[in-house]
Amino acid sequence: xxxxxxxxxxxxxxxxxxLRLNTVASNLANADSVSGDASKxxxxxxxxxxxxxxxxxxxxxxxxxxGVVESQADAQKRYEPGNPIADAQGYVYAPNINTVEExxxxxxxxxxxQGSVEVMNTAKDLALRTLNLGK
Length: 135
What we know:
Strand order of the largest sheet: 1-2
GO biological process, one term: bacterial-type flagellum-dependent swarming motility
Helix content: 40-55%
Main location: other
Radius of gyration: 22 Å
Distance between the termini: 28 Å
Shape: elongated
Number of domains: 1
Structural class: alpha+beta
InterPro entries: Flag_bb_rod_N, Flagellar_basal_body_rod_CS, Flg_bb/hook_C_dom, FlgC
Largest sheet: 2 strands, antiparallel
Strand content: 15-25%
Number of strands: 4
Domain Flagellar basal-body/hook protein C-terminal: 88-133
Number of helices: 2
GO cellular component, one term: bacterial-type flagellum basal body, rod
Order of helices and strands: HEEEEH
């Protein structure tokens, strides 16, 4: 742990938002994919975070990534009998991904990432100015 805990906290936020951006990108990339089997269709992924409050006796504070979970939403069933991967009844299955919601998540994660970068830059500037006080 550094003497400046703000870098640890902001760094954990950067890692968390980076993971969030990657999962959103994966969801958007697979939003239009289809499968002939409902059990094999892509499932949207979402990261799960927890705030680490950090007290005097603990090592760090910040954001902890608990993991990435898959959506339990049912796949969209589309009747496309001409599709070569359709099942015997003529259906294909697509992931239940709301692209507008994913874009909002992407913008939110991007802004949070930018905010954490600004926190680190400000903390760095303040530390440098503090070191220059004695000159």
